[in-house]
Design brief:
The chain has 274 residues and is mainly alpha-helical. It has one domain (2-266). It is 65% helix and 3% strand. The protein has helices at 16-19, 22-35, 42-59, 63-68, 74-87, 104-129, 133-143, 154-184, 194-200, 202-225, 244-266; strands spanning 93-97, 100-103.
Length: 274
């Protein structure tokens, strides 16, 4: 289960998406996430599916690797869908069993919510799979640079986000090692009720926190020994410069946004209740 979490991992490949400027990938990812909430018909989600499929194919990241990252959120997804399915009222009643009511509006809302959550995770994963943590830090810092005028510590914020993102796969690997070590010593982590399972996690959490604090301290000492004092006056070996492919990426994403807005809101298209 721990190995299924792919958040923060980088997948090396030679693709057009990997070569894009990190600022382009961050902005286009945000625009794609916004596009999931501005449409009102199933036809708009068809357009979003085609666009996401084209991006995944271009990135050369295996589809099964992306789907693997959805496994940890399946419980959250199921709970969200069930809440919307049974608690949303509106339209004709489709199913009535005991205290449960399923209406047309509830079914429509639950399906749209599931699609949005899945595409949100997949779209965000493409950005992290195709962008190194260092590039992501530089991109965030450049995009937030205007906030320096109101004394927002942009470089420090970007650095903390990058370090946190980089630590996720490291801590997940450490958790997997600790769990295997505890199971080799005879610890039972799967049986019992919720309270017993929570107690069984204590021998895992304690060494994990100790390891995390040790890694954080080692990182702080390494940065201090290299005379790190923030981003002021700091030069870069590879400064970010927009190229033709980056402008093409912006144009394609803007055209997609316009198409989704028009198709998802103004093109009359209905299948059953959708």
């Amino acid at each position: 289960m721990v190995r299924d979490i792919t958040i923060g991992q980088y997948y090396p490949a030679k693709s057009a998406i990997h070569r894009l400027d990190p600022r382009v990938k961050i902005v286009c990812t945000l625009l794609f996430l916004i596009s999931l909430f501005i449409q009102r018909s199933i036809l708009g989600y068809v357009v979003a599916t085609l666009f996401l499929g084209a991006v995944i194919y271009t990135s050369r990241v295996p589809f099964k690797f992306i789907v693997k990252g959805l496994k940890p959120i399946m419980i959250l997804l199921l709970i969200t869908v069930l809440f919307n399915l049974f608690l949303t009222r509106g339209g004709a009643e489709l199913v009535h069993f005991w205290i449960f009511h399923i209406t047309e509006k509830g079914l429509e809302t639950s399906v749209y919510t599931a699609i949005r959550l899945i595409y949100l995770i997949m779209g965000s994963s493409i950005m992290t799979f195709t962008t190194t943590p260092n590039s992501l830090t530089d991109g965030i810092e450049k995009l937030l640079h205007p906030l320096n005028k109101i004394r927002v510590p942009v470089h420090e914020v970007a650095m903390m986000m990058s370090i946190a993102l980089r630590f996720i796969p490291i801590l997940l690997e450490e958790t997997d090692k600790i769990m295997k070590a505890q199971m080799a010593r005879g610890a039972d982590l799967d049986s019992g009720n919720m309270i017993q399972k929570a107690k069984a996690m204590i021998p895992i959490l304690v060494p994990l926190f100790v390891s995390a604090f040790r890694r954080a301290n080692d990182l702080a000492m390494a940065m201090e020994s290299r005379c790190y004092h923030g981003g002021e006056g700091r030069t870069k070996m590879k400064p970010l410069v927009y190229k033709g492919r980056d402008r093409a990426g912006y144009i394609i994403t803007i055209l997609y946004m316009v198409l989704v807005f028009i198709v998802g809101r103004y093109v009359p298209f209905h299948i059953w209740i959708f």
